[in-house]
Amino acid sequence: MSENTPANGKTPVDFWFDPLCPWAWMTSRWMLEVEKVRDVEVRWHVMSLAVLNEDKLDELPDEYRDMLENQAWGPVRVVIAAQQLHGDDVVGPLYTALGTRFHNNGEGPTREAVAAALKDVGLPEDLAEYADKDTYDTELRASHQEGIDKVGQEVGTPVIAVPGADGEQVAFFGPVVTPAPKGEEAAKLWDGTLLVASIPGFYEIKRTRTQGPVFD
Q: How many angstroms separate the CA atoms of 137 and 142, rounded?
């Protein structure tokens, strides 16, 4: 992945997601709002909650472990297969289609929802068959590792990376927010996030979540 500025002159923002995560979905919708109010361009990449947690499954609650083992592999495998076979440009639209069906429409990460999402963006529905295949797991793990290497193992999805003042990327987990801010609120959150992320030695700011994801 190149960290260079796109030909259109916009600032590249690399965004790693797992389509299963509702909180990453909220952040991604905010990021699309940021594209409207700041001179940035999002580049989408997959990461995997299944890969992230595969060495600590025994430590996880039963329900979350079951989700990782039985639901988490399929969607990311389909997205990485689509990327490998049809190019980087399909990743963002496919994520939007998957997330809309999984989260906004409440369909969940079913095979039917995945196939319908592929159809929504004009991709072959038989790509859904890759949900059960490890054909591109090497590429999936490489994409995941590229994102996680920028922030460390003790995070989840999403991971965002932007060019820093010295040209090196500054990366962070989150922000976790609901509902997704729009307009000037989206811009304010973006500016503030970049401000704190740019401070050397800054690691965390957090408060207890009192509201679940609001999909609108």
A: 8
Q: Which of 53, 35, 25 is nearest to 182 (CA)?
A: 35
From the list 81, 71, 78, the residue with the least C-alpha distance to 22 is 71
Q: How many CB atoms lie within 10 A of CB 180?
A: 22
Strands 40-46 and 169-173: unpaired
Checking if the pLDDT of 1 tops 60, the result is no
- Cis omega before residue 213 (within 30°)? no
Q: What is the pTM of this model?
A: 0.94
pLDDT band at 4 (very low <50, low <70, confident <90, very high): low
Edge-to-edge strand ranges of the sheet holding 169-173: 40-46, 11-17, 159-163, 169-173
Q: What is the pLDDT of residue 6?
A: 64
Terminal C-alpha separation, the chain: 32
Distances (CA, A) of 110 to 11, 83, 157: 35, 20, 20
